[in-house]
Design a protein that fits this description.
Layout lengths: L1 H5 L9 E2 L10 E7 L6 H9 L7 E8 L5 H6 L4 E6 L8 H12 L4 E5 L3 E3 L3 H11 L4 E7 L5 H17 L2 H4 L13 E5 H6 L12 H10 L4 E11 L6 H15 L4 H24 L2 H24 L10 H20 L4 E3 L2 E3 L2
Parallel strand pairs: 1-9, 2-3, 2-5, 3-4, 7-9
Antiparallel strand pairs: 5-8, 6-9, 7-8, 10-11
């Protein structure tokens, strides 16, 4: 009852930014950190260069010590400045180090930080800038549309978005009076002055969940917006269940601040919300079965908007308990890796949480 009616109505899966053009068009520097992204970088750059933004914009691609043709492919594109890095200083995450180098090289008052696997509609930049300026925001971010074609993606990607919304209800993120803050790293438009106010990217240099860390720092003295995007989509594929397992377990325990108590509370909460109701419905006596049925109905209804967003059959709601078990197991595996000293690995780099 609390999650459905009093938790920021997270399950409505909104807001979504619509195409719009602002009367003002300040200069924008678009920064794309890229490490071994040869399969997607050309398409991503082409979509950025095709923006119909009426103001001036410059595309920076930061080749983060790639071992494939990422740098060469980026350099072949017109009107793109390529920065090449070799290694990173201790204490920095690779992505934040790459972003910081481009921020230093750029000059525009607005910065669009976007991943090397995000495809942008031609109206996307104008839409983001309009949202930032009209509402006098410091940061605008969007959850882009994720790939959802393989069986693993169909089963788990909508649930990933659903659980992210539950963890960070967008209505609370967008409420200046709420302390909840989050961003989605695939698309972040930020004012340079807001970035300088928090001490630059150096202030969060070691963050593995860099998008949320950035949003939290900015919101302490500014305003932010987080929504869904209908104008940008991810090209990154997760063809098998193990690929999504690795994506979740990479930072799940970091999200819990590496706290055993937070892990125990989270697992207990997931069991209470997703496992107890169907169990009570199937095996409980009397009122326990009625309460189990009511909880299952609320869970099913709450998942429908996210499934609608991803054009998935509503029958996937029946798999929610199994999906929750998958996410619980991946989160526990993330904690075990941390306790074993294994840390996180991404693009052939190892990080300590």
């Amino acid at each position: 009852i609390y999650l459905f009616f009093a938790h920021g109505r997270f399950w409505l899966s909104r807001p979504q930014l619509l195409p719009a053009v602002s009367e003002e068009s300040p200069d924008v520097d678009i920064i794309v950190p890229a490490r071994n992204e040869s399969q997607t970088i050309e398409s991503v750059i082409a979509s950025l260069l095709a923006q119909d933004y009426p103001g001036n914009f410059q595309v920076f691609v930061v080749d983060d010590d790639s071992t494939d043709d990422t740098a060469a492919l980026a350099a072949a594109a017109p009107r793109v400045q390529v920065l090449r890095l070799q290694g990173k200083p201790p204490g920095w995450s690779g992505k934040l180090w790459a972003l910081s180098r481009a921020v230093r090289a750029s000059r525009a008052p607005l910065l669009l930080l976007t991943d090397a696997d995000i495809l942008h509609d031609s109206a996307h930049l104008s839409c983001l800038v309009t949202q930032l300026l009209r509402n006098r925001l410091d940061l605008v971010s969007e959850m882009v549309r994720l790939n959802c074609s393989s069986l693993a993606e169909c089963a788990l990607v909508p649930a990933f978005v659903y659980f992210f919304q539950m963890l960070y209800p967008f209505a609370r993120v967008n409420n200046a009076r709420s302390k909840t803050a989050a961003a989605a790293g695939g698309t972040v438009l930020i004012r340079r002055e807001a970035l300088e106010r928090i001490g630059g990217l150096e202030s969060i240099r070691g963050a593995l969940i860099d998008d949320v860390a950035l949003a939290q720092s900015v919101k302490k003295a500014g305003t932010i917006f987080l929504g869904h995007s209908g104008l940008a989509s991810s090209l990154r594929r997760y063809p098998a269940f193990v690929d999504i397992w690795r994506m979740i377990s990479r930072t799940a325990f970091t999200q819990l601040r590496c706290s055993a108590w937070a892990l125990a509370f989270t697992l207990a909460g997931l069991i209470l919300v997703w496992i107890v109701p169907p169990w009570s419905l199937a095996f409980g006596p009397g009122w326990s079965r009625v309460c189990g049925l009511a909880a299952c109905i609320l869970a099913i209804v709450s998942y429908l908007p996210t499934l609608t967003r991803y054009n998935r059959p509503y029958l996937w709601t029946l798999a929610l308990p199994l999906i929750a078990l998958f996410y619980m197991a991946a989160t526990l595996a993330s904690a075990i890796d941390y306790w074993r000293g294994k840390g996180a690995t991404w693009k052939d780099r190892a990080y300590q949480s």
